[in-house]
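Diadenosine tetraphosphate (Ap4A) HIT family hydrolase
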Amino acid sequence: MSTDVGPPDGYTDAELARREARDAEVRRLQAAGRCYQCHDQQVAGELLGRETVIATRGPVQVSLAADPRAVGHTIVGWLPHVPDFLALDEAETAVLFNAAREVGLALKAALGCERVYLVTMCDGEHNHLHLQLIPRYAGTPIGSRRLVDPRRPLRDASALTAAVRERLGAAWPA
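Predicted structure tokens:
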């Protein structure tokens, strides 16, 4: 499994068409007042890709970013709708951030990255609070620039999810 994501414009025509169709469906759902992540769970991952889901445990779902900034860019999502992490109580905060730590350790072990950066997002009315885990590999410059690196196509999703799942173990059902 390669950690080389290639050039920022590395989308094939087919990948670009899938991305544009997905983004159009996300906009349609949002305009209709629907959460696209909840919709995707109801249709078994047809929108974001079944192979992107690594595991779900309680209120936390872990999946690969559909357009990663680095190989292994992972989303640790909080399934109940909340405006941001400040709406979580202490126990919920512990569940979410402990999950992120476990997944970060699994990413590091599975992919051999040097660091795993964490950033939180929860934008818009119809979105889920989620933590983004962005691996940084040897030879990659350090710093916050990694958080705005160009997005690239997700490739080898099945191999990536399997590698991280294996490191997470039985405590994280697929």
